[in-house]
Amino acid sequence: MAKLWGGRFRKATDKKVDDFNSSIRFDQRMYRQDIRGSIAHATMLGRQGIIDKSDADAIVAELKNILKDIENGKAEFLIDAEDIHMNIEKMLIDRIGDAGKRLHTGRSRNDQVALDIRMYLIDEMAELSAMLAETMATFVELAKKHTDTIMPGYTHLQKAQPVTLAHHLMAYYEMFRRDYERLCQCRARTNIMPLGSGALAGTTYPLDRGYVAQMLGFSDVTANSLDGVSDRDFVIELAGCLSIIMMHASRFSEELILWSSGEFSFVEMDDAYSTGSSIMPQKKNPDVAELIRGKTGRVYGDLMGLLTMMKGIPLAYNKDMQEDKEQIFDSIDNVKMCLPVFCDMIRTMKVNTSKMYEGAQGGFTNATDAADYLVKKGLPFRDAHSVIGNMVFYCIENNKAITDLTMDEMRSFSDMIEEDIYEAVSLEACVNGRAVTGGPSKLMTQSAIERAEEYLDKISNGKDA
Predict the structure, then answer these.
(1) How far, in Å, CA of 83 to CA of 7, rounded?
(2) Would you please indicate which residues are annotated as catalytic (active-site) residues?
(3) Phi, psi for 269 (deg, rounded to 5)
(4) Which of 159, 174, 190, 389 could form a disulfide with 234 if both were Cys (CB 3.0 to 4.6 A apart)?
(5) What does the alpha-carbon distance between residue 327 and residue 349 come to, in Å, rounded to a whole number?
């Protein structure tokens, strides 16, 4: 097949080079965006008198027919045509002849592909944002059911202080809320139109870039033609956003893997979101959580691939940049695969509230509150810390909890201790006494849930986050 760019060449491209050079295997998914961009470009060319309006109208009409044919599986993409841009242009020329050859006036594949990938990622980010909103809502709905479910909080994976499951879940809501906002910001930076940058130095044709940007829904046009064709910051930024989303999903998945083990038994995964063993009949494996954890590394790899690919490229466009698509497409596909099953796994799991409460009773999670009790009696905190540290050592030696100690045993450590200490160090008091903003008390958690619901309602109505 003769190349559309082949005038300067006297030998056909080697078949192996055609296969090596072609990107149609993966960039064909951008066909909608490519056609939308070409329709806008052709419309502008006709409006500006750069090509005859009749040719522009014929191009637009046939591009719409090509779109229908692709959607209906009636169009065939060719390896020899290299990429989605040349495939669609070849179809157009084959169908309408010379008029189709005028479509590429005033543009290069360099600014065309920059346009297509921006448009494609903007569309994908809209879907990802909706998935993140659903993820946030999943955590909020579960949190509403567990404002009284006391569990141990951890640092260093050692029991630290009692919290509620609701408070723990709302921590993840906050993570995914930041992910949502990062995605919105990334989308805004992506929403700048590069078409009109040409190969690298713009064009002598009187293009109306603002008109094309308006037609395509962009907020602005790129300010520098070199940057317009060679910038892939927005791709890398999105890959970074997706990596952070997966990191958050992986952290909670790791907790569910621990919590569903016999050693914790805090949760039980639903049968529909677990698998068995081919040899051990008793096994119930948290494979969904484990796969999310595993796919996180794959998304990280895509990010590192993009950064490495771009780090040594001089201005402007280089063929290396073709490698951006497979990696960002892979990241998007994996996140879109993970988030729905992640939400369903959380919705369907069974929470063992008694086991969580039992877990909070061990490990001296009320030791800090015992020290605070003495501080409120007038003892300096460092002295109170030492007193309770000695008390904990005594409890360990005698296999007791703090609340198991008699008043005489308590007072052997400090004569400031009175009967009210038992209430002060109860798990309920430890949790609900922490009524500072952002704390785990029921009052503060309910307030956080209300704010979250207001936020989710706002973004569901299309308002700015």
Answers:
(1) 19
(2) 156, 277
(3) -75, 145
(4) 190
(5) 33
- Structure-derived torsion over alpha carbons of residues 436, 439, 444, 450, reported in degrees to the nearest 10: 130
Cα angle 65, 71, 74; round to 5: 75
Do residues 196 and 207 make contact, with C-beta atoms less than 8 angstroms apart? yes
Backbone torsions φ then ψ of 93, nearest 5 degrees: -65, -40
- Decide: helix, strand or coil at residue 288: helix
Q: Decide if pLDDT at 2 tops 90.
A: no
Peptide bond into 58 cis (omega under 30): no
The token duo for 189 is: 């930076």
Strand duo 192-193 + 220-221: pairing: parallel
Residue showing tokens 């016999």: 262
Longest dimension (CA), the chain: 101
3-class state of residue 462 by DSSP: coil
The residue type found at 309 is: M
421 neighbors 401 (Cβ within 8 angstroms): no
CB 212 within 8 A of CB 40: yes
Q: From CA 162, how far away is CA 403, in angstroms rounded? A: 15
Angle at CA of residue 107, ends 306 and 127, nearest 5°: 45
Q: Return the C-alpha torsion angle 126, 36, 29, 194, nearest 10.
A: -80
> pLDDT, tens digit, for every residue of 305-319?
999 999 999 998 888
Structural contact between residues 43 and 215, judged by C-beta atoms closer than 8 angstroms: yes
Contact between residue 299 and residue 292 where contact means Cβ atoms under 8 Å apart: no
Which residues on neighbouring strands pair with residue 286, listed in sequence order? none
d(CA 237, CA 131): 18
- Mean pLDDT of all residues in 355-381: 96
Q: Model-level pTM greater than 0.85?
A: yes
Q: Which two tokens stand for residue 23?
A: 């990107």
Q: Phi, psi (5° rounding) for residue 131?
A: -65, -40
Q: What percent of the chain has pLDDT over 90?
A: 88
| Nearest of 328, 325, 336 to residue 301 by alpha carbon | 328
Q: How many helices (H) and strands (E) does the chain have?
A: 20, 6
As a whole number of angstroms, the distance between CA 188 and CA 177 comes to 17
For the segment 281-294, the average pLDDT, to the nearest whole number, is: 94
Determine which helix (DSSP H) or strand (DSSP E) holds 323, and give its type and residue range: none
For the chain, how far is it from start to end, CA to CA, in angstroms? 51
Alpha-carbon distances of 153 from 357, 389, 431, rounded to whole Å:
11, 19, 11
- Contact assessment for residue 150 and residue 356, using Cβ atoms and an 8 Å cutoff: yes
C-alpha 52/C-alpha 216 separation (Å) is 22
The residues facing 50 across adjacent strands are none
